[in-house]
Every structure is written in C-alpha cells, then in structure tokens.
Amino acid sequence: MSHTQTALITGAGRRFGFELAKALLAENYRVFAHYNTSRAGIDELEQLGAVGVQADLTDHQAVLKLIAQVQAKTERLDLLVNNASVFVQNPAVDADPAMLAAMFQVHVQAPYTLITQLRPQLEASDNALVVNITDIYTDSPSTDYIAYCAAKSGLANLTLSFAKELAPKIRVNGIQPGPILFLPEHDSEHRQKVLAETPLEVEGGLQPMIQTVRFLRDNPFVTGEFIKIDGGRALNI
Q1: What parts of the sequence cross the membrane (predicted)?
Q2: CATH number of this structure's domain 6-228, picked from the four choices 3.40.50.1220, 3.40.50.720, 3.40.50.2300, 3.30.200.20
Q3: What pTM was estimated for this model as a whole?
Q4: DSSP string covering 96-138, please?
C-alpha cells in the first residue's frame, strides 16, 4: 500500500503524540514515531504500521542519528511535530544542572536541529508543515515552572523565526495546549482548581489538539501562527 503522506512525531509513545500518530496512521500516513525510553505505545503504533525511532533528545549525536534514520527511509517529509517535552517544577531543576540543560535541549535545541537538518525532506513536500507544541504559559509564565516556561518560549520564538525563514516552501505554526489531559499525579483538588479557572470548565481531551493539527495542515494560508487549545484558560492566568 502506498502512503499518502509522511510524518515524524517526537514523543509519540504516549498522550498527544501517541493519539496523533494513531490518527495519522488511520489516514494512511507513513509515521515515524519517536520515543526515548517508553516503548509501550510504540509497540502498538508499530503494529499499526508506524516506524519506531529511538533517541534521547538531550544528546545531540542521538538527534543526528534519528535524522539520519528518517532520511534513509524517506525522501519527503510532509509533517514534523515537535511534541516531546520535559515538564518538572523548579526544585527538580535546581537540584540537577543536567535537568536545566535538558529543558532547553528537548524544547529548543532538538527542534532547531530537526527543522534545519530535515529541511530538504520538508521542501520535497507540496504542503510541508512544522507544528511546534508550546504552552499557554509561554505568554504568561508560571513561577512554579520557570525553566520549562523559558524553554517553551524559546520554542515559540523559533516558530516565528522559521516561519519567516522557511517560507514559502514550509509553513511553521505552534499549538498552545492548556488543560487537555491531566497527569496521573494531579489530584482531584488540583483538577478542580484548574477547571474552575477554565472558562469552558472541562478537561479538553486530545481530539481538539488533533483537530488543530488537521486544520493547520489543511489551511495552506496559515504560517507563524499560534493556536490556544485551552478552553479559554489563558484568559485567567
């Protein structure tokens, strides 16, 4: 079976990356599903036809190896989604200098390298799109996640720069998620507080994120744009 389009998704083993990969596979995409340590979701994606590619995004050589693996298997890349993330509070960053470095390696350095090195494959597409997953806190940072917010803001700035640099062949946009899917460690008190601060008062789920990727893909006149998928929560932070 010939594939209609090709995508690379970082952090595809769980949550949004996993569900987006499944959705694209159902649309007959060839999907390169990146992961670091967790293979649970990747095994399922491979059974559906995805190509699992492992890399520690804090390791520049590993990122280059990942790129080489993709380039060896496809001459064209239609969609690159920089979704992989490191999300920890200030104390964990303060306790370990490597964690501070990882914030910027995963959110800024790796996306920069992926976009620049995969440019030839993206330019071979008739509708090349890069989607960078940032955060509503890039505009109004949380003091509990200072390094995370700074790194995501760096990714947002990269989005704008590459949108200018890579036009007209490649479009580059960002999605700013809010409370789409709580983490297992979020207790009921935290969830209730967040939903009380969210005008639409619900946990969004992952489908609105997937729908936004499709919108960005299917609308050829959008680049350098950020779309908040947050139920309006950015209005209250």
Answers
A1: none
A2: 3.40.50.720
A3: 0.96
A4: -HHHHHHHHIIIIIHHHHHHHHTHHHHHTSSSEEEEEE--GGG
Domain boundaries, the chain: 6-228
Distance CA 207, CA 81 (A): 16
Task: Return the DSSP state at 190.
Answer: H
Q: Which two tokens stand for residue 37?
A: 């340590």
Active site residue 148: yes
Residue 15: partners with Cβ closer than 8 Å, 6 or more residues away = 181, 206
DSSP string, 59-97: -HHHHHHHHHHHHHH-S---EEEE-------HHHHHH-H
CA distance 162 to 151: 16
Q: How far is CA 64 from each of CA 53, 59, 81, 154, rounded to the nearest angstrom? A: 12, 9, 17, 21
Q: Give the tens place of pLDDT for each residue, 108-166.
A: 999 999 999 999 999 999 999 999 999 999 989 999 999 999 999 999 999 999 999 99
Active-site residue among 29, 35, 137, 148? 148
Contacts of 178 (CB under 8 A, 6+ apart): 136, 198, 204, 228, 229, 230, 231, 233, 234
